[in-house]
Write a structure and sequence with these properties.
Two copies of one chain form a homodimer. Chain A has nine helices and three strands, in the order αβααββαααααα. Chain A is mainly alpha-helical and about 220 residues long. Chain A has two domains: about 5-75, Arc Repressor Mutant, subunit A; about 80-220, GntR ligand-binding domain-like (Four Helix Bundle (Hemerythrin (Met), subunit A)). Chain B binds a DNA duplex (21 and 21 nucleotides) through α3.
DNA sequence: GCATATTTGTCCGTATGTATA
DNA sequence: CTATACATACGGACAAATATG
């Protein structure tokens, strides 16, 4: 008995559709730059164009879709410049997180659990889940700030980054080598030595960004 | 021929309405927590309910309006907790900005010009303009990062803060004492000594936040 | 607690302008 | 250049939820 409409629960239909569309976008269901026809997508999700347009507005403000006047919406295609900018934001926000970290914060427990899970999934070579765990680890790190606004800003760039991953063929196993880096990062933060933690963070981000940029180049030159 | 509709230019009508509404919200036209009726506001702006709802979605995602299921939208009322969070975000982002600042960046010229303008308006006791200049100064500071995403994240919390200002009776002259602080901050950043600059930034933010919180308390206890 | 009026949530039909084949 | 397709925006309609007396 799969509910066809409003499976989201008590959210508005527009938000539910936006959530479903976001998942589809991140999963790489659509090709980058693809045009999303209002009529077609509305029919596909069984909602009216008005409702769909509300959902489109939502996703556009999150940079997952791009609006072109009188032409409609298109799947965003993060390019090299976008990736640079995303990692610039990550650097600023996550540096703030490691410096603001307080001993005994509940987020540490979650980060430890995620490191363990990441190792497990890594052992079974389930790279998709490893990627998800990796994202969650860094979200937990930002939650050290106890700042809803900082967390949602971080979620924004992370969603955009996941969109980029979804558009890369082998996006999932890009996360593979970073499981142990996260572990080092976690111990550095918990040690309380801010300098070490920032250095470890910079190393992670630099390596991660290089991996993404390289994959992006491989895709473009093909 | 003066275009009667879409005076905003080439943006969509929903975005134009959202911009107008944002200005009205920031100017304190509505009372905090006030309910915005779809019918009423749509009639007031001469747009259909569907178009207005798109604009509402936009402003809701910017935290200027609050959505309540089946009850409609209300003017957001930033409370003490929100102000704390906003300044936490400012601290993280602006620390990033002063540390990322590179010598000779064009933003410095703009910041100098804004300091001068601020002094002028301060001399003529035009506190409203002083407030605007102050905001622009800090936006220019963040633009030192050359990061569109960081700038738009900053714009978001700044808009929310301006909404809070608009809801305070004497919001405008809250900015008065900070003209000279901005000047000190600017010279500290340009000196290249990151430690000094961060210290100066912290001093500014602490003082500014205290001013806002105090005004907020005065308003609540009245 | 109930009946009624209001408002939101959603959809449809349609007219107009814009871009593209 | 014309024609087609589509986005834009409007107004009306109705069910469901909420507020009001």
């Amino acid at each position: 008995m799969s509910g066809e409409k409003n499976e989201g629960g008590d959210r508005s239909l527009a938000e539910a559709v936006a959530d479903q569309l976001r998942e589809a976008l991140i999963a790489g269901t659509f090709s980058p730059g693809q045009k999303l026809s209002e009529q077609q997508v509305a029919a596909e999700y069984g909602v009216s164009r008005n409702t769909l347009r509300e959902a489109f507005r939502f996703l556009t403000s999150q940079r997952l879709l791009t609006y072109v006047q009188n032409r409609g919406v298109f799947v965003a295609t993060p390019d090299a410049e976008a990736v640079i900018d995303i990692y610039r934001v990550r650097s600023v926000i996550q540096r703030g997180a490691v410096q603001m970290a307080t001993r005994g914060h509940p987020a540490f427990a979650r980060m430890h659990a995620l490191v363990l899970q990441g190792r497990e999934y890594g052992a079974s070579e389930d790279w998709r889940r490893v990627g998800t765990i990796n994202m969650e680890f860094h979200r937990a790190m930002v939650s050290l700030c106890d700042s809803p606004r900082l967390s949602s800003a971080f979620d924004l760039v992370l969603a955009e980054l996941r969109l980029a991953f979804g558009q890369l063929d082998e996006g999932a196993h890009l996360h593979a080598p970073y499981v142990s880096l996260n572990e080092n990062l976690l111990t550095a933060i918990e040690s309380g030595n801010a300098m070490d933690a920032v250095a470890e963070l910079d190393a992670y981000l630099l390596k991660s960004e290089r991996g993404v940029q390289a994959a992006l180049q491989r895709k473009l030159s093909r």
